[in-house]
């Protein structure tokens, strides 16, 4: 019976994976892992991973709206540790709302240091963006690797990350972003911030002001992927102006059923459980898997690198 | 400088963006109005003469004075570098206490002179008049409720920091880095982000929500 259940689950999961993989892409073999929710002893087959685990690729995890210190955060964190055993990501990006409520030293322990301790101990670095529940002073909290800045860049291999403070998008920050993007020769340009500029969330929705100000810069300078949080669910938006927008704000909190039905924006949505992402950038492809709190892969695929548009003379 | 020549404004008024603005404000004519306002208050150094420029200059001087005070007090506590949560909190609290002590007699309006308060009110009124109801609701939905702010009070720890819409932010008099406009109830406060304390405010500026 349990074998039948496992096989059925695998079929369901495999059939739910989007058809983003380029034809002929080789995938890794099946991987087994434990599914905590159904039964602690049940081992099910995970869907075939799209992650190529290429040598010298850039591997990272994506979490958003994490700082509750609650049970769901810890469960997702455990799932991240589990995922890392098969996919050794080197760092994690945090999409803001890193601390809900108090920001006393004990809060940093309960809402960050303890849940992610196995990852921190293993040398995984976290790069945080500020959310609307975060005090700007977090930029001086060393484990967030913000180097005292509200907005900043960092590079990993061929990838340059542009971390924005969308809670206070001052003209100075817009100018900074323009300058940084214009001066970059990175093959991949990825930005992340707390507020999504495209979203099907009923609670918040798209941040149109932000879109007006910064999307033209993304378009002009070849930013290919933009991650955001704020909405407490996962949503991969259909490409907008050639850019892939992904919201992952459900790594601790959950706004169940909050993705508007029949939204024209949604390519894939998941708002029935918490989740996080693992991402691998290898050459001109960005591979990703979105994994739920219970260990199911709820979305996966590959995104091709976006070329920086050439300026016509 | 004509406003078409201002790089920030030019970007806001690119062809692609012009298509988006009516979603927010409902008319192209209004774009010129808001951009003209942006020019009048966001680029004070371009207009050295006139009462508005003088008021903005005065405002900048007062803020510089505040930052000078903060720097002096901060130096006594030692340099701030990325650190652990305990040291960060201790330094933040020590600096906040020192600032409160140094500014214990501060009153509303000490940092934001009256003419600049008027500019802020006008910018907010103009911005919210142009927003459609859904957008207005989105801008105000996470504004924390509470009594009238007090100078030197800590921003409520449990409250989200309501995000000032970026296009509005572009029309408000600019602030030095890490002094931030925030909405609180119907008021606009200037928050010192390093210590999370209210350093001045303009009361009753936001529309009812």
Distance between the termini of chain A: 67 Å
**Overall pLDDT of chain B:** 81
How many strands, what sense, and barrel or not for the largest sheet of chain B?
A: 3 strands, antiparallel
Instruction: Indicate the overall shape of chain B.
Output: globular
**What is the chains' assembly state?**
heterodimer
Largest sheet, spatial ordering of strands of chain A: 6-7-8-9-11-10-12
Give the biggest beta sheet of chain A: 7 strands, mixed
Element-by-element helix/strand order of chain B = HHHHHHHHEEE
Termini separation of chain B comes to 37 Å
- Average pLDDT confidence of chain A is 86
Shape of chain A: globular
Unreliable runs of chain B: 1-45
Ranges of chain A where pLDDT stays below 50 over 5 or more residues in a row are 1-46
Q: Which structural class fits the helix and strand makeup of chain A?
A: alpha/beta
Largest interface: A-B, 42 and 48 residues
Strand content of chain B: 5-15%
Helix content of chain B: 40-55%
Percentage beta strand of chain A: 15-25%
Residue share in helix of chain A: 10-25%
Number of helical regions of chain A: 6
What does this structure look like?
- The complex is a heterodimer of chains A (313) and B (209).
- Chain A is of the alpha/beta class and 313 residues long.
- In chain A, 23% of the residues lie in helices and 25% in strands.
- In chain A, strand 13 (275-282) and strand 14 form a beta hairpin.
- With 209 residues, chain B is mainly alpha-helical.
- In chain B, helix 3 (28-42) packs antiparallel against helix 6 and helix 4 crosses helix 5.
- The longest helix of chain B is centred in the N-terminal third of the chain and has 27 residues, at 51-77.
- The radius of gyration of chain B is 18 Å and the shape is globular.
- Chain B starts with 6 loop residues before the first helix and ends in a 7-residue tail after the last strand.
- The relative contact order of chain B is 0.14.
- The chains are: A alpha/beta (313), B mainly alpha (209).
- The A-B interface holds A 101-105, 107-109, 132-137, 140-142, 146-148, 150, 166-172, 174-175, 178, 195, 204-205, 208-213, 216, 219 and B 8, 11-12, 14, 16-17, 20-21, 23-24, 42, 80-86, 88-89, 92, 134-135, 138, 141-142, 157-158, 160-170, 174-175, 177-178, 180, 193-196.
